[in-house]
Amino acid sequence: MLTKLAGGRLFDPANGRHGEVADLWLRDGRIVGDPGPGATPDAVHDVTGKVVMAGAIDIHSHIAGGKVNLARLLMGEEHDRHRFAGSPCGCGGGSGIATPSTHTTGARYIEMGFTAAFEPAMLGSNARHAHLEMSDIPYIDTGGYLVLGNDDFLLDLIATNAGQAAVNDYVAWMLTATQSLAVKVVNPGGINAFKFNARKLDLDEVGPYYGVTPRSVLTVLARAVYELGLPHPLHVHGCNLGVPGNIATTLDTIQAASGLPMHMTHIQFHSYDTAGDRKFSSGAAALAEAVNRTPSLSVDIGQVMFGQTVTASADTMAQRHTAPLAHPRKWLAMDIECDAGCGVVPFRYRDSSYVNALQWAIGLELFLLLDDPWRVFLTTDHPNGAPFTFYPELIRLLMDRDYRLAKLAEIHPDAPAHTTLGSITREYTLAEIAIMTRAAPARILGLSDRGHLAPGASADVTVYSDLPDRRAMFERPDLVFKSGRLVVRDGTLVAMATGCTHVIRPGFDDLIERRIARHFDERIGLPIKHFRIGDAEIRHGAGPQLHPCRRREVP
Amino acid sequence: MPGGIAAKTTVHFGSIDLTSCSGNRFNQPRWGAMTFHPDTLCPFCGLGCGDVGIDQDDSGIAPRPSGCPQADRLFRRSTAVSTNARMAGAAVAMDDAITEAARLLRAGRAPSIAGLAADVDGVLAALTLGERIGATVDHERSEALFRNLAVLRRFGWSATTLAELRNRCDLVLVVGPDPAAAFPRLWERWVLPEPAFVADGARSVVFLGGEPLPETLQCLAGRIEVNGLDGGAADLVALVGRLRAALAGRAMDGDPMMELAVRLRAARYAVVIWAAGLFDTPQPDLIVEGLVRLIRSVDGTTRCAGLPLSGADNLIGANQACAWRTGFPLRTGFDAGVPLHDPERFDWRQRLRDADVTLWISAFRPEIPLFDTGGAVIMLAPPELAVTPEPALFIPVGTPGIDHAGDVFRADSVVALHAGALIDRGLSSVATVIGRILAALDGAALDGAALDGTAVGNTVGGEAAGC
Q1: What does the pLDDT look like over A500-537, one tens digit per residue?
Q2: Residue B311 — very low, low, confident or very high, per pLDDT cuts 50/70/90?
Q3: Is residue A503 part of a domain?
Q4: Hey, what CATH topology would domain B145-310 get?
Q5: Do B325 and A102 make contact, defined as CB atoms within 8 angstroms?
Q6: pLDDT exceeds cutoff 70 at B463
Q7: Any idea where the Amidohydrolase domain is (chain A) (predicted)?
Q8: Residues of B (212-251) whose Cβ lies below 8 Å from A
Q9: Which of A454, A453, A265, A285 is nearest to A375 (CA)?
């Protein structure tokens, strides 16, 4: 099958194209070079004047696994109100906005031109469940970031000074066994400390039982990820999420990395200062300044948008603090398998609330104060800040200053005074949006054949009309291709497709396996062989797509 | 009875257990073609034991004594079974059975998919079929689950998992009947081992309003205390209420619940365990709600979490798959492709009264509960099942973890396990059979070779994108 997209404006920042007019050719799932005058395409789409980009990639979206499924069960009222029939193309029906069911998740993403989304908090003990769910999401590529840093095995390695090499082997073994793409740390040591009844744990506070600080967990893991040569830096959900004044912790966390690459996730929730009568103000300027001058850092925002959602996190400690604010008034929490935990708290962000309004403004401030779109990613931490379906609205806020100021005028009247948002004139360009949502995510995850339009890349392509209303533009692309197949036309599903699951597999010294096996026998109560997820289990036998790691040494 | 809604003759279905009379032929070790499968994963009760030893020879498989009556019985399978489908008791070719199943389901106006005892792929295939034909879906054992879910959905909960119980818990509070009745190796595997994170390794087990089984007493010996059984059956709602009052400092003088409340508050990590399926009271969800509130109250100052156990025959996996596919728990139907959840109306016991056709799925064990229905019954079950009367259609299927690999969830709902295949008896998986029925509904040519069940389990439908 040969497809020609004729005359579009290509926004392909990975290959230095910022709106140049060119034809694009797709053959059997891949982008190919111009096959020459003799070629007879099976389909030609005239996209003259249209904006052509690679399929968008969401690097941080809670789409699958135990906590998401629990959230679906907890959000019964919302699911009752939002129920959908399937599409004639075979995409099944479903329900939900904040926690859409699997087929609904795939449909909503692909309708917006997204062709990949990554589950950023996969617990090892729940990894098989997460993979089962991810393979039931149609259209999009997926992958999971393995949560480490609260597991008793790792804390024991650190506490007993087993050494960095042992930690590296364990991390590599776990990534392999769970078919993961990256490593995430959530409230380093804090979830474990909560199991010993600690209700808070600061970066340099010694945790119970192991006597280990979050700082040491963070640095040991950041170093393991670096030395193993994983493409994605350690994905960090830091200490003190949501706590006023946590900007100090966040800045300290940057220091703790001491030059090692680090990705700080949903930084909006970690950028709170304590100025003003309410002791709650924006720390965005200070954080943006620190990130701008630290090239080894990347961030995603976790933008808050107003409305009902549900927060689902492995951070039981933080979620227990949020629980009294649950709306509707119900929540759940779990301690999980000497591994981590999960907390699910429904939440309604209101523009008439000072705190929520300021959260909204802080997220936008960060987007606009961070200079380098290659190191900033568009996320709402779905569904924690807002459902991912708010992305088009968010893009409009970033690209349209007048619209942004109009919205700023609608929020709680005291909030604007505590942010710099009103004075920021920056508007994102289409090229910057293409970097932030395509080229940069593929690069930071090590997906060399995604996020760009050069020959050899996966033929994941989105075509938009260049509308002045950027929300309308990004809500409803004209055409979306997944692996070369036209799956969305004028915002409507026209064909089915399946994505693939991306993984990495750094090698390890087999010796570590004996120690891990003993841990599984003595503590977890499960022979290690039942924990390991085989390739044949991924996407019903299709297996994962493997990406290379390149071992490095810390200078 | 094609279409069979007019007649409305209710038929009483039941099964005869043949496994117990399958003889002792594996008790004598045989030399020759014997294979030993160590550390086999057991998919039956929901505890997910991964240490069962299975002997295999030409005549079939048999487990080495595991300490679990369920595993010891259900892992015993003979290769000498019929792989024939039966239509009203008469053997038919599989292709004809598939065609007939599709015809019955297509003709049905009020179809029901029940039993639903299958691996995750089988459940997903059943959900695809349910959406396609407008059937409701429910699991045979969902009653226990819904007693817990009712509370989760209106209130939330605070829970833990089996490895946390094993390593962190210093005080186990068992509420109601001994869960070992449904989860035989619970105490041996998850409470008997010394807890890693309890200072002196000591833990107590307190039974509230229920008595430990003799096996439990033997297993845990002196650690067990029994409370709240002042002669006669315990009123669990009242007992839990009294304990909550004691925790709130409102107990009556001399109430023994005061002491228990003090111990809960003093424990480092208390785990409250219950098996809601074993509660035998009019409003079991009131007990569960009381327990969740009790746990929250204790957990405010020290650590305390619940362990609501339910989940034989992949009940939890069926609920998880239904939740991710539809956004709703079991007892969900489809109206023109749109899911609709109704925990009362779509309870399979209710539905089977009105259903004009029922697809009953029971892949794990050659047993079915007694049920009545006036509609046609298509049964997917192991060939060892002897069912009376003969259903309209019987299609033999393999058991996940024996005849084919399959995923099942543990009763604590977090851990999913992949049970491997042990023997090839020529039995298809539920996912494969339903995939063929779906293809027949599509009018596609019946080409068994081309219809790989695993592709059906995917149910995403399109060809795999060339990654």
Answers
A1: 999 999 999 999 999 999 999 999 999 999 999 999 99
A2: confident
A3: no
A4: Dimethylsulfoxide Reductase; domain 2 (3.40.228)
A5: yes
A6: no
A7: 44-494
A8: none
A9: A265
Asked whether the beta carbons of residue B418 and residue A530 sit closer than 8 angstroms, the reply is yes
Residue-number span of the structural domain to which A338 is assigned: 56-66+112-445
Look at chain A and report how many structural domains it folds into: 1
Do B154 and A330 contact (CB within 8 A), yes or no?
yes
- Where do the structural domains in chain B lie, given as residue ranges? 83-141+314-457, 145-310
> B343-364 pLDDT, tens per residue?
999 999 999 999 999 999 999 9
A195 has a chain B CB within 8 A of its CB: yes
Predicted ipTM of the assembly: 0.97
The bridge status of strand A51-54 relative to strand A2-12 is parallel
Looking only at the bridges linking them, the beta strands covering B376-381 and B393-396 are parallel
Phi, psi of B68 (to 5 degrees): -125, 120
How many C-beta atoms surround the C-beta of residue A405 within 10 A? 13
Q: Give a yes or no: residue A351 inside a domain.
A: yes
CB contact under 8 A, A525 and B193: yes
> Which tokens in the block code for residue B326?
């539809």
Q: Does A418 fall in a domain?
A: yes
Q: What phi and psi values does residue A356 have, to the nearest 5 degrees?
A: -65, -40
Q: Which residues pair with A263 in a beta bridge?
A: A235, A298
Let me know: does A158 contact A216? Beta carbons within 8 Å.
yes
Instruction: Tell me what pLDDT residue B280 has.
Output: 87
> Where does the pLDDT of residue B32 fall: very low under 50, low under 70, confident under 90, or very high at 90 and above?
low
HSE value, Cβ hemisphere, 13 Å, CA-based, for A134: 34
Question: Is residue B20 predicted with pLDDT exceeding 80?
Answer: no
AA letter at B348: W
pLDDT in tens, A449-487: 999 999 999 999 999 999 999 999 999 999 999 999 999
Query: Is the residue at A407 inside a domain?
Result: yes
Q: Are A335 and B165 in contact (CB under 8 A)?
A: no
Nearest to B455 among A331, A337, A540 (CB): A540
CA distance A59 to A62: 10
pLDDT (0 to 100) of residue A90: 87
Tell me the CATH number at A440.
Answer: 3.20.20
Residue with tokens 């008997």: B192
The reply to whether domains B83-141+314-457 and B145-310 share a CATH topology is no
Q: Which CATH number fits domain B83-141+314-457: 3.40.50.740, 3.20.20.60, 3.40.50.360, 3.40.30.10?
A: 3.40.50.740
Interacting residues of A231 by C-beta distance below 8 A, sequence separation 6+: A182, A444, A445, A446, A447, A504, A547, A548, A549
Using alpha carbons only, how large is chain A's radius of gyration in Å? 23
Interface of B with A in 345-384 (CB under 8 A): none
Pairwise CA distance, residues B275 & B179, whole Å: 5
Per residue in A324-353, pLDDT (tens digit) is 999 999 999 999 999 999 999 999 999 999
Mean pLDDT of B290-299: 97
- Reported as a single tens digit per residue, the pLDDT across B438-462 is 999 998 434 443 443 333 333 333 3
B433 φ, ψ (degrees, to nearest 5)? -65, -45
Inter-chain contact B461–A496, Cβ cutoff 8 Å? yes
Q: Which of A509, A445, A458 is nearest to A484 (CA)?
A: A458
Q: Which of B272, B279, B262 is nearest to B295 (CA)?
A: B272
